[in-house]
Design brief:
The protein is an all-alpha fold. The chain is about 55% helix and about 0% strand.
Amino acid sequence: MERYPPGAPAEVDVHRSASLADMLVGMNTLFRLLLDAPGFAEACRANARNLKVAVAGGRRNE
């Protein structure tokens, strides 16, 4: 029994869900691409520093 008419592309199956592993690989790939984007890694580091300062109650521990 065929799921698709002969010659139909596989993309017509809108009910097919990706596995968790597929989604994690996709998220990892996206994050790696973002890290390669100009300024993204620096912005992440700046946000991490600001978060550490906020958690420490506004005191800088450098």
